[in-house]
Automatic annotation (TrEMBL):
It comes from Mucilaginibacter aquariorum. It comes from the Bacteria. Pfam families: AhpC-TSA (PF00578). Residues 1-21 form the signal peptide. Residues 30-176 form the Thioredoxin domain. The lineage of its organism: Bacteria, Pseudomonadati, Bacteroidota, Sphingobacteriia, Sphingobacteriales. The keyword Transferase does not apply. Keywords: Signal. This is TlpA family protein disulfide reductase. CDD domains: TlpA_like_family (cd02966).
Length: 444
């Protein structure tokens, strides 16, 4: 792991904080080990007091959890934050922080089926903490030790009971610093020369770059046309190999666990697994960035062929869609008097084992999609010929197809094992993947 010596960049090197009339501390740029200023937060909901100061948490580990309503990972983490707060009581506290307005947050919390049973505390309408700890990717977790010192900045997956306990015991975090690239502009080319060389409009031929992970840059994919220079830019940033193949083949099979065949010896290179460690760390060694700038007349198909050539030449792999005869589970709609119905107005799926399990207002196609996400399982094909929505509530999530059939029988559904010829995404290795350091030497 890198030593945590990276400085937090502030939008202003010297920022006057005016949280209230009596408290106006001067804050300069912080680095790991610095004392965090005693900021007062006047806009806070579901909290015992009307305000919360940083010093109120002295003697505790304080984790500022930056979130927004559009961030699904943030939403998933909020109940876990509540649980951790109850677990550690007066030893640690996770404080959610958002820049969104009070009325928007209250409306969201009341309307969220996932959060409505939780009393979520949060700083709202934040104007200060976000400037003090700038970021462009969420979730964003700021760790402040019981003495008020900044000790780490991470994603939410690091906020676990085990890690909190270790920090409380005095263990210094050794995680990489979450260092978002604040000046990143997705509308500009990723790589460009500082040489003062100008091209005549229409004279540009072709430029491609293929690299490993770009630190601090959010995952992205876009196509941008520059009408002035008559060029088109294709940008696929920090994407796993399977994502790139889905683009190349214009096919969603690489995303479906039951419809892909991967090299068994190195499957963790292509698909994240919990045993691989932190997802944040996995991304840094298993994602790639490709940018192509081409004449405006070039088609997307031509660019994607070039991307496929570079991936397969440099990484020594080969991906294709092949028809294979395979056993599968076929979802059938039996002759049944059961009428499908739902008590909910919109689709809502909750299969997190730490919370009540349900799938509300789903269709048979949703069930097909869900079951095709299971690794090392047979493909699931929906042949029920129905689009009517229905609800399923679980005490425990079914594991085997026999268990699913017990749950689905009252609704008139049944899984039957049959053989089908199916398109499968097949990935083969010509030899072991080139390591990240080797790839970096190629692309430098």
């Amino acid at each position: 792991m890198k030593k945590l010596t990276i400085y937090i960049v502030l939008a202003m090197l010297c920022l006057k904080l005016t949280a209230n009339a009596q408290d106006k501390p001067t804050v300069t740029a912080l680095k790991i080990g610095d004392i965090v200023p005693d900021i007062t937060n006047n806009n806070i909901i579901n909290y015992p007091a009307k305000t919360a100061k940083i010093s109120d948490f002295k003697g505790k580990l304080l984790i500022l959890d930056f979130w927004d309503t559009w961030c699904s990972s943030c939403i998933q983490f909020l109940p876990r934050a509540n649980t951790l707060n109850r677990t550690f009581l007066d030893r640690a506290y996770i404080l959610p922080v958002t820049g969104q307005k009070l009325e928007n947050i209250q409306k969201f919390l009341l309307g969220s089926a996932f959060l409505k049973n939780y009393k979520i505390t949060s700083v709202v309408n934040d104007q200060v903490l976000t400037k003090l700890f700038p970021h462009n990717q969420l979730p964003h977790e700021v760790w402040i030790d019981p003495q008020g010192k900044l000790i780490a900045v991470t994603t939410d997956e690091y906020v676990t009971a085990q890690n909190i306990e270790q920090v409380l015991k005095g263990q210094k975090p050794q995680w990489d610093f979450k260092n978002d690239k604040l000046d990143y502009n997705a509308q500009r080319p990723l790589f460009f020369s500082d040489n003062n060389v100008k091209l005549k409009p229409g004279s540009f031929l072709y430029s491609t770059t293929f690299t490993g992970y770009l630190e601090g840059v959010p995952p992205d994919q876009q196509v941008k046309t520059d009408t002035l220079n008559q060029t088109k830019r294709f940008s696929f940033v920090n994407q796993p190999i399977l994502n790139l193949y889905a683009l190349i083949l214009n096919n969603g099979l690489p995303f479906m666990a039951t419809r892909r065949i991967l090299p068994t010896d190195h499957s963790n290179i292509y698909v994240y697994a919990v045993q691989s460690g932190y997802y944040d760390e996995w991304l840094k060694t298993h994602t790639y960035t490709y940018e192509a700038i081409v004449p405006v007349g070039f088609s997307e198909r031509e660019v994607l062929k070039q991307l496929q050539f570079q991936i397969e030449y440099l990484l020594k792999i080969k991906g294709s869609v092949q028809e294979r005869e395979t056993d599968c589970w076929i979802l059938k709609r039996k002759d049944s008097p059961a009428t499908l119905q739902t008590a909910y107005a919109k689709k809502d799926i909750q299969l997190n084992p730490n919370h009540p399990l349900f799938t509300h207002h789903i269709q048979a196609a949703d069930l097909e999609w869900l079951l095709n996400q299971k690794e090392n399982a047979l493909p699931v094909i929906n042949e029920s010929v129905t689009t009517a929505p229905f609800d399923l509530d679980f005490k425990t999530l079914p594991v085997t197809m026999e268990e699913w059939n017990v749950v689905l029988k009252p609704l008139g559904f049944e899984f039957i094992k049959q053989t089908r010829k199916l398109d499968m995404f097949v990935l083969t290795e010509q030899r072991h993947l080139i390591s990240s350091p080797a790839l970096e030497s190629i692309t430098r």
